[in-house]
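Page 37, continued from 36.
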């Protein structure tokens, strides 16, 4: 029987220290990219892929994240009275139905693999997606939807992959390629943050995964890896060693690393330029900046 992916884990327990002081009181995941929080982009992508159950692995100080997905009756009433129906529809799109969303606490920061392991009882014996809200992907067809289609064929572990410069590979989990079939790549394994010059390929894993329960079995071993943390990449590699197939998936779209300040700013510009209501004003401003810079030189 072919299994479908209906559950997704969102690891959002990190402290967001690269964005201090903003993240002193605001969870990084609800920082806005144009006019939507980062996490809303991930939720919308998951919904487009058919996800029905949303599991957030959080930590202390993330109550604002939980409040974001709750109803806001007073605000809704105010918008309704003012006849602002368009804004009301936008607001309603952020609501999550009762029972659709769950929150699990990660008591200690022991790594991405540990965060995923924390949600194991809500996953059971089903395939599941893992989505890192820091990775925003602009695509005509949402990245996870592309991966779900691939999973329907392979029924195996799939990780989103993109080519990176050789000198950047040590910052990622990297695929050890067995056979490159174009969009899909079969693997011999994965290496988490290889030493400079020792990466087995230039195909790096980014924040979208579709995984089988066998990966959770490997996470149960709680094996420490790079940085003394429990690495999800290691568990996927161990599942591969135990006979599970693992595929890399070259997705169509542009990925922005919104976990870095530069990536966050690049995404802000790119998403704003893609909007009809913002494009002209922003282009005008950017042209002024470029002309002023050239004049100063």
């Amino acid at each position: 029987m072919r299994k479908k992916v209906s559950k997704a884990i969102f690891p959002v327990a990190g402290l967001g220290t690269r964005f201090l002081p903003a993240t002193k009181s605001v969870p990084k995941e609800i920082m806005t990219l144009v006019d939507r929080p980062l996490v809303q982009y991930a939720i919308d992508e998951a919904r487009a892929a058919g996800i029905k159950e949303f599991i957030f692995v959080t930590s202390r100080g993330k109550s604002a994240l939980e409040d974001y997905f709750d109803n806001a009756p007073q605000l809704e009433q105010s918008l309704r009275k003012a006849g602002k129906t368009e804004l009301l529809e936008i607001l309603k799109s952020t609501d999550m139905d009762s029972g659709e969303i769950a929150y699990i606490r990660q008591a200690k920061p022991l790594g991405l693999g540990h965060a995923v392991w924390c949600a194991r009882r809500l996953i059971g014996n089903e395939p599941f997606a893992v989505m890192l809200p820091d990775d925003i992907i602009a695509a005509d067809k949402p990245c996870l939807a592309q991966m779900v289609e691939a999973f329907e064929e392979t029924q195996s572990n799939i990780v989103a992959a993109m080519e990176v410069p050789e000198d950047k590979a040590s910052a990622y989990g990297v695929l050890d390629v067995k056979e490159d079939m174009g969009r899909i790549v079969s693997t011999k394994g994965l290496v988490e943050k290889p030493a400079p010059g020792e990466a087995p390929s230039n195909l790096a894993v980014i924040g979208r995964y579709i995984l089988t329960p066998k990966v959770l079995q490997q996470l149960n071993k709680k094996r420490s890896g790079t940085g003394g943390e429990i690495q999800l990449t290691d568990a996927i590699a161990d599942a591969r060693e135990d006979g599970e197939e693992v595929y890399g998936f070259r997705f169509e779209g542009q990925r922005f690393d919104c976990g870095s300040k530069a990536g966050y700013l690049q995404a802000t510009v790119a998403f704003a330029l893609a909007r009809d209501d913002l494009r002209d004003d922003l282009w005008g401003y950017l042209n002024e900046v470029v002309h002023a810079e050239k004049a100063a030189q």
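The chain has a mean pLDDT of 90. Flag for discussion at group meeting. The chain has eleven helices and 13 strands.
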